């Protein structure tokens, strides 16, 4: 086997998303694309870091730090994984970049497009790798999905895509300290869960890909509860093709397992099935055979991890190749997605303090 790259990770924050990421990276697997080492863990206290390591990477021996700054200063760390709430992403990224570290930062990448540009400008000046951890885009499932849609025209001319994400939360009943209730932490459905249906629509309707995408027209509305955006409804319209997409995100009901994205075309449709839009399991292509009848073909992509290894592997390979950005989620695409969400929030009336800075 040819030598594979090794990436030594510094984990910033010990919340849920970081636990998923680390648990995936330490799994044993055959024919890995890269080797991952949990080199260091930073938390608000050393004890929290120790407890996190004991639970999620018990066979590793990471250095435990009671601050994030120590992660950035550790010469043994190749790449920093930022798993903090999104309102801290800009600062965490800029601090890591200033220390000369490569960065993989969770979605939403920042609060708005302005912050994203600041981060990428700093990365360009420093000459380091920075990427948004939109794990959905790195999945082999998505590669095959887009190949069938746009290379093979499996359902003819794509016309319509729909995707919805629901997470039941009693916003008024939450404590004031909850990140779901604090606008200063980017509270609201759009940046938290709505980014997934938005991503599915982009993947389903934009045949050009992230290198030369088409900007759709946005029509959006939002409702608020206790000062927090609680529902978002969006129509995307692509002028060059007439393709349209509808997405919703809400805290007012629960997600029903099943179709997380449906794409309809002139000769059939595709249903992506899963627990929620962030966790797709497989998809089925339905091809028109005769009036009212369709053939079906199921595409499965089994893996024992949650799906973070795909983005981690690609990050390790990119860094080893001395790249500064991901071809799957390049800087301009992260900025574009933030711009789309900025426009959705503008129309919906959701304003964060970061928008005024």
TrEMBL record:
Top-level taxonomic group: Eukaryota
Gene3D superfamilies, sorted: Dihydrodipicolinate Reductase, domain 2, NAD(P)-binding Rossmann-like Domain
GFO/IDH/MocA-like oxidoreductase domain mapped to chain residues: 149-270
UniProt keywords, alphabetically: Oxidoreductase
Listed EC numbers: 1.1.1.179
Oxidoreductase in keyword set: yes
Keyword Oxidoreductase: yes
InterPro entries documented for this protein: Gfo/Idh/MocA-like_OxRdtase_N, Gfo/Idh/MocA_domain, GFO_IDH_MocA-like_dom, NAD(P)-bd_dom_sf
Pfam families cross-referenced by the UniProt entry: GFO_IDH_MocA, GFO_IDH_MocA_C3
Molecular function in Gene Ontology: D-xylose 1-dehydrogenase (NADP+) activity; nucleotide binding
Residue ranges occupied by any Gfo/Idh/MocA-like oxidoreductase N-terminal domain in the UniProt entry: 8-131
Catalytic activity of the protein: D-xylose + NADP(+) = D-xylono-1,5-lactone + NADPH + H(+)
Family to which the UniProt record says this protein belongs: Belongs to the Gfo/Idh/MocA family.
Name used for this protein in its record: D-xylose 1-dehydrogenase (NADP(+), D-xylono-1,5-lactone-forming)
Lineage, broadest ranks: Eukaryota, Fungi, Dikarya, Ascomycota, Pezizomycotina
